[in-house]
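TA notes, week 10

Several of you asked for a full example with nothing omitted. So below is the full record: structure tokens for the whole chain, then the designed sequence directly under it. When grading your own attempts, check the secondary structure regions first.
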């Protein structure tokens, strides 16, 4: 995406509204300390993949982002046993789409085959199936596909290898609203970006209540609604390190 200047004050206000939307949906929001030297840290989803059994600390594909993972590891070790993606693997959390016990992982400029294989070595023994997905023309898999409940995925077909989603119901994102394919669904409610009326109608027709949040400033950096949070069940007990294979 061609870059344009981000209005930081507006971005902060939009992010605050996003946090308020999550709280209204029942989430307890924990904000990590500001990292002025790491401006991409707002896209926290890329630093970890949090499953019930383990939190996988990623190795971001952009080298400038790798220092972000230290802070998130210190936080997540309170809630989960940690595993990690090591060199030569690279993995961005924005490339990991979970549908039940299947982890669809985008093969992108940020996530390589070694990273996908490393995730599989961690997740397979826990009962997950890791499925690579070819992605084109966007930064991450979840830029172009989102789980919207049950066996349904909202996707921009032009940007993905749809065959990877065999067995799922793939709902095409409306023409001209490809950016709306990044949707955050919690308990039957969908948080969607402002400015996507046809996608909102599509989701409502699918039985979802929609909450609209303006994410236009961070979208200039290809940031989606799922990018700005790591959402997990904090009632799940932390497991002993020996229970997780790496």
């Amino acid at each position: 995406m061609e870059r344009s200047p981000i209005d930081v004050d507006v971005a902060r206000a939009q992010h605050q509204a996003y946090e308020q939307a999550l709280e209204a949906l029942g989430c307890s929001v924990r904000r990590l300390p500001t990292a002025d030297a790491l401006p991409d840290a707002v896209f926290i989803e890329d630093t970890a993949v949090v499953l019930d059994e383990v939190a996988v600390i990623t190795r971001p594909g952009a080298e400038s982002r790798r220092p972000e993972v230290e802070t998130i590891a210190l936080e997540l070790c309170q809630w989960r046993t940690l595993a990690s993606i090591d060199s030569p693997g690279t993995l961005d959390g924005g490339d990991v789409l979970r549908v039940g016990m299947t982890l669809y992982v985008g093969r992108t400029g940020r996530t390589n085959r070694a990273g996908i294989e490393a995730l599989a070595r961690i997740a397979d023994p826990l009962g997950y199936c890791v499925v690579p997905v070819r992605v084109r023309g966007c930064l991450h898999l979840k830029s172009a596909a989102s789980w919207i409940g049950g066996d349904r995925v909202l996707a921009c077909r032009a940007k993905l290898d749809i065959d990877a989603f065999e067995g799922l119901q793939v709902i095409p994102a409306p023409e001209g609203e490809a950016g709306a394919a990044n949707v955050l669904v919690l308990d039957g409610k969908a948080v969607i970006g402002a400015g996507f009326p046809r996608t909102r109608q599509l989701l409502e027709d699918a039985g979802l209540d929609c909450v609209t949040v303006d994410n236009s400033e961070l979208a200039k950096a290809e940031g989606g609604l799922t990018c700005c949070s790591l959402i997990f069940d904090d009632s799940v007990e932390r497991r002993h390190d020996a229970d997780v294979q790496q």
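The longest strand covers residues 102-107. Use that as a sanity check on your answer.
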